[in-house]
Amino acid sequence: MVPAVTKLTFLVTLLPVWSNTFLVNRPNDANPDVFERDVTHAMASALGCGGAASATQLGDIRQALMPTWTSLPKNVHGQIDRSSFRYLARRYFSRFGIVVRGFEATRVVNGSHWGAADVLSERVPGYVESVLESQHAQERGFSLDDGVTLIATILQLLFDSESATLAQIYWEANTSLSSRITHGMMVAMLEDYMVHWLVGEDKEALVQLLHNDDALNQVLPRWESIQFFLAGEIRRFRHRHEQQMRSLTSPNSYSFEDVHDVASEITRSFASFWESECENMKMQLIRMDARGTGRVPLSKFYGTSLDSEWRFSESEAYLRELGALDETSPWHGKEVIISNYIQGTSNCIVSTSHFRVCCLNMCEHLLTEIETALESSTALPSDILHVVSTLVAPTSIDDEGTPNLPKTLITQLEQIAEASDGTIPLHGRLFQQWLHYVFPRECVFPHKAGLTSSVRPVDYEGDFHATDEEKHRHANGAQVVVHRLPDLNESIDWMSQWSSDEELFAEIRMEGEPFFSDVGLLLGGVVLVAVLGAGFGARGWKQPMSVSASRSTNSHFV
Fold it and tell me: Which region is the signal sequence (predicted)?
């Protein structure tokens, strides 16, 4: 078997050839059958050497996508638009705690730009672009089969993007990629891989940490636990391939592809392993959330940091950039939003040029249950309340596992429906905002598009780390007693961040009107990102009020 890095490098070399062929021969009036065939062919080509996902893998992806797909708004052909596809892909990868660059929820999407310019290049694969810029694509959109095929491709290329790092480790160990290595060498190779993966682009730190367990235990949290996790993944690999291993003359030897299979599984499962660390951090914040609103006073946040806790050291400006700071309450001052902070980029344990591994999104299973129960893109308030009232979240506001639904929130839900012809779009900012207040510790507060970003600490232009002076200033501010107004409504104060601005994930158009003009850029860019990653080594306070009937048609919150 040819190593994945070789296949993908070869693919990049062939892109201009395929581009010219498809641009010359691809008609713009493809019928549905031809379109489906060409999408599948283009994606299979992108996997290299005919390597397509197995029927089982495609079936698993389809099953995972189905609840969200069923609930997404469709056009007259029963298909979804460009924005919906980004949302579908983001929801899929969130199951693994993976955030793909270009698919972040903070990206602004409009009619002429899909929000990933920083990871695209002029070398867009023409063979994909020409297929998807056909008249059929613009008028009909994407089917579920298209989504399954595309996500399978992104998934494979995403995991393969780490091949270059693994190949570098082989080179540093003076080991040929065609060699079979012992079990001990495999463990050593993958431990080095984990260090590269966790440390990222800091070459100086890599030199100091590689093969230095004392330094690793000091710098990397739970390094010994990570080693146990790695040993478990190797055992799982041996179990999966037990029959194959027995047939070898040297059953305890491993190929490059074997080592890469384990590395790929690490990418898939690391967020689940790391979740205990995320839960510990979350419980620390919850203990500071005396009002049960999913918010922690900034003074307490920094006070804990000053008391020797190595976490909770992001600067005020960086917290604001991430969307983890609520500054709307005149009575409680600045507060850190627990769910937004946990999901923030600064808490991603792995951050590469093309994807991040972050804390699992605890709101994901709640959304999936809602979508499964309602099976529609819109729903009546009564239907939503019936479903949501049965959901269980261990850290809900009353800490009894069921959501708290006071009259204030029921009224807000009804007002959203009044501004939307009596029903509520499930894939819009207002419903997610409402869900945040129902489950404030699980579901993030959805800021309006363009107000926040997912910038990594290393890429942040300002100071992402708070100084001791800044921490002391905020911590000392907690000594100031703030008196409430006697007639203050507690629910209004709690929901001071509520905004009545709607932003929709998808925009359904009339039959015959072009669905989207840059769908080719969407898919071409996605495939290119993953291919290049492998080829080049991926390394004013406002009271809640009636919801405005106006909606954004040029900007999509996805």
Answer: 1-19
Domain that holds residue 235: 181-244+252-273
Average pLDDT over residues 340-360: 90
3-class SS of residue 209: helix
The full DSSP string for 464-508 is: -B--HHHHHHHHHGGGSPPPPPTT--HHHHHTTT----EEBS---
Residue 524 near residue 46, CB atoms below 8 Å: no
Query: Does any domain span residue 552?
Result: no
Q: Is 266 helix (H, G, I), strand (E, B) or coil?
A: helix
Look up tokens 């840059």; give the residue: 518
Q: Helix-strand-coil percent breakdown of the chain, rounded to 5?
A: 55, 5, 40
For the cut 70, the answer to whether the pLDDT of residue 530 exceeds it is no
C-alpha to C-alpha distance for 516 and 86, rounded to whole angstroms: 13
And the tokens for 138?
Answer: 């613009």
Same-domain status, 144 and 96? yes
Residues 349 and 366 in one domain: no
The pair of three-digit structure tokens given for residue 474, joined into one six-digit string: 């905020």
Residue 263 belongs to some domain of the structure: yes
Residue 142: strand, helix, or coil: strand
**525 in a structural domain:** no
Are residues 115 and 151 part of one domain? Answer: yes
CA 295, CA 329: separation in Å to the nearest integer? 11
As a whole number of angstroms, the distance between CA 409 and CA 127 comes to: 50
Tell which phi-psi region holds residue 210, choosing left (phi > 0), alpha (psi between -120 and 50) or beta: beta
Element (H, E) at 325: strand 325-326
Query: Does 393 fall in a domain?
Result: yes
- Structure confidence by residue, pLDDT tens digits, 431-444: 999 999 999 999 99
For residue 98, with 0-12 CB atoms within 10 Å meaning exposed, 13-18 middle and 19 or more buried, which class applies?
buried
**SS3 at position 98:** strand
* Closest by CA position to 550, among listed 429, 385, 427: 429
Token pair of 430, please? 């207002």
* List of residues 6+ apart from 122 with CB closer than 8 A: none
Given the structure tokens 């500054």, which residue do they identify?
A: 327
What dihedral angle (degrees, nearest 10) is formed by the CA atoms of 459, 461, 467, 472? -110
Q: Please state, in angstroms and rounded to a whole number, the distance separating the CA atoms of residues 260 and 258.
A: 5
167 pLDDT band, cuts 50/70/90, is very high
